[in-house]
Design a protein that fits this description.
Length: about 230
């Protein structure tokens, strides 16, 4: 009898998720698609960032939302879940977002102080505070305005009152944060939902990635039909 050829064990498929607010809505969908992290993932005291899965051929990494896209675009993770705001901001050519998961609904909007919005003036240049420099520049360019973006990572709403910028571009959900900081939404740049994202090369070369996309696709179709 001839010996079986020794085939290398494939590395676990790495699935990246953001650590914050999308996660609660994403976990049930992931579970239905067979992406189930082990108990340590839910242990608040654990400082681990990478977790085994019930399916030992997978692992989950938990990173910041913007970094989910970076890990997947560079092939360090093969798939993940992230908001379309992040997908559009980076526009990585190697990142493909094949499934709209219809969770994590919000919008990327321009906002400014209420009293300023009441007296609009024509301008050719603006200073805008945002975590989204690329989307911000593109939006204002489309209006013939050159936007100088002051990059902030949070608490954007403080910028106009403190003279850092005349406007902000930030995510809005209930509108409460804008209201409580004396700002009004003046235009919507992008409606946002969470997407399943995959690395394009991995999709072509790893059948497990294509199978994962099909499972998420089927789940979303099933939910839409219900
Ligand atoms: N009201 C909201 N504010 C911010 N993000 C929202 C909101 N509603 C939905 N989202 C989605 O959640 C994403 C942020 O996800 P999450 O909070 O999981 O990330 P995070 O890694 O904790 O973020 P950060 O890096 O800012 O700490 C946004 O990119 C967006 O797609
Ligand atoms: O319209 P709302 O329902 O008020 O939500 C919008 C707020 O939520 C997000 O901040 P988040 O709470 O994620 O904190 P962050 O400033 O750390 O991003 C976003 O940046 C807004 O500040």
């Amino acid at each position: 009898m001839s010996a079986q050829p020794h085939l290398p064990t494939p590395l676990p498929l790495t699935f990246a998720v953001p650590k914050g607010r999308i996660l609660d809505e994403a976990l049930p969908l992931m579970a239905a698609a067979g992406v189930v992290p082990d108990a340590e993932f839910h242990d608040k005291k654990s400082r681990a960032l990478s977790f085994a899965c019930v399916d030992s051929a997978m692992r989950i990494i938990r990173v910041r939302a913007f970094d989910v896209a970076t890990f997947v675009a560079h092939g360090a993770a093969q798939a993940g879940i992230v908001g379309s705001d992040v997908v559009e901001e980076f526009a990585y050519p190697d990142l493909y977002a094949p499934v709209d998961l219809d969770i994590g609904h919000c919008r990327l909007s321009v906002a400014e102080p209420a009293e300023q919005a009441e007296r609009p003036t024509a301008v050719s240049h603006l200073r805008v505070a945002s975590k989204y420099p690329s989307l911000t520049r593109r939006h204002f360019e489309g209006m013939g305005i050159q936007a100088e973006v002051v990059k902030l990572n949070g608490a954007m709403e403080l910028a106009p009152g403190l003279g850092l910028a005349s406007r902000i571009v930030d995510l809005v959900s209930t509108g409460r944060t804008l209201k409580d900081n004396g700002l009004v939404e003046t235009s919507v740049i992008l409606p946002v939902t969470a997407r399943l994202i995959v690395n394009r090369a991995a999709l072509k070369t790893d059948a497990r990635v294509a199978a994962l996309v099909e499972r998420f696709r089927a789940l979303v179709a099933q939910r839409d039909a219900a």
